[in-house]
Specification:
CATH topology of the largest domain: Rossmann fold
Order of helices and strands: EEHHHHHEHEHEHEEHE
Radius of gyration: 17 Å
CATH class of the largest domain: Alpha Beta
Strand order of the largest sheet: 4-3-2-5-6-7
Helix content: 40-55%
CATH architecture of the largest domain: 3-Layer(aba) Sandwich
Number of domains: 2
Shape: globular
Largest sheet: 6 strands, parallel
Structural class: alpha/beta
Strand content: 5-15%
Length: 220
């Protein structure tokens, strides 16, 4: 069992089953410009933010990218299809249990604020979190620790008392760099995650069973 005084959730692929939709939207964006964005490429970009994905496309396919303009375009396409999203199994149960035990909860995502906002609105989840930190709130995206450290600061909880829930290798590295306990719930091959996380769970139901909620140790 792992003690937990605060829970930090990734969004895409962890709380929300969004990676399939992201792949379809990004693939269509690349195809419109003559590129063949593969599923393997998409997997390598998971958790690293839109700017990373666009720069990879520019490097591989050779078409010019304007990160600000093209990010907005891809996000617009994604938001237009947000009703296609579903929550990941076990997410609601874990969130409700943490809330009932008084455990602070943050959403910590590399995605842009308006995209995170649209997703939270889709599932009426905004009030379920004590803090929401997005990629445009910090200087460096995952695998840098900035997003998780900012989430801990906003919750008023020491990083060492936080448990990070992540589905990506970049996110696990970010949680580890932040000095937090890292739970990986990977969508793909779990083998690489054993070296990056304190625990690897097959889903959020299993992750919930591995957690024990502890009193918060405030930073103050």
């Amino acid at each position: 069992m792992f003690p937990c005084s605060a829970l930090l959730f990734d969004m895409d692929g962890l709380a929300v089953d969004s990676e399939p939709l992201w792949f379809r939207v990004e693939r269509d964006f690349a195809r419109d410009r003559g590129g063949d964005f593969t599923e393997a490429m998409a997997q390598g970009c998971v958790g690293r933010g839109m700017a990373h994905t666009l720069r990879l496309m520019e490097s591989v396919f050779g078409f010019a990218v304007d990160v600000e303009r093209d990010s907005a375009h891809v996000i617009d396409r994604f938001i237009a299809r947000v009703d296609e999203l579903a929550l990941k199994p076990g997410f609601v149960e874990l969130l409700q249990l943490a809330r009932s035990r008084g455990v602070p909860r943050a959403l910590a995502s590399s995605s842009a604020r308006r995209l995170v906002g649209a997703t939270l609105e889709r599932f009426d989840l905004a009030s379920s979190f004590d803090a929401v930190v997005t990629g445009d709130c910090v200087e460096h995206p995952k695998p840098a620790p900035d997003i998780f450290l900012e989430a801990a600061r906003r919750l008023g909880v020491a990083p060492s008392e936080c448990v990070v829930l992540e589905d990506s290798q970049a996110g696990c590295r970010a949680g580890r760099a932040a000095g937090m306990t890292v739970f990986a719930v990977p969508e793909y091959d779990p083998a690489p995650f054993h070296a990056l996380a304190d625990a690897v769970a097959k889903d959020l139901h299993e992750a919930r069973r591995l957690l024990t909620f502890a009193p918060v140790l405030s930073l103050e």
